[in-house]
Amino acid sequence: MIFVYLAAFTGGLLFAVFVMMYGVERPREAHPTGERSFRLSPPIVIAFSVWFGGLGALLTRLNTGTVATRLVVAIATGTVVAAISARLVRKWWAVTP
Predict the structure, then answer these.
(1) Where are the domains of the chain?
(2) Which position among 34, 43, 61, 81 has the lowest Cβ density within 10 Å, counted as fewest Cβ atoms?
């Protein structure tokens, strides 16, 4: 299971580097109505995968709890951090008149 956590952590970091290099802007043609979706935006995916992978690998390395407990804690923490990230991104992307 540690390989899943490390793959998620490494993938999240690599995706973060990609976003830092190329940005997260989407062309207007992708959303003709001007609406933006925050469900699968890159910052949210990055936040979930980094926290899920990092905490899961740490809990596995420290041998804390059972496999199911570690998985549930890692998923819950990743979801909470992704929700906080979504809220911050939504405020940051707010259109100001």
Answers:
(1) 2-23+38-92
(2) 34
CA–CA separation, 21 vs 87, rounded Å? 23
pLDDT along the chain (97 residues), means of 10: 94 91 67 60 89 95 93 96 86 69
Please give the pLDDT value at position 88. Answer: 84
pTM of the model: 0.79
**Do 53 and 8 form a contact (C-beta atoms < 8 A)?**
yes
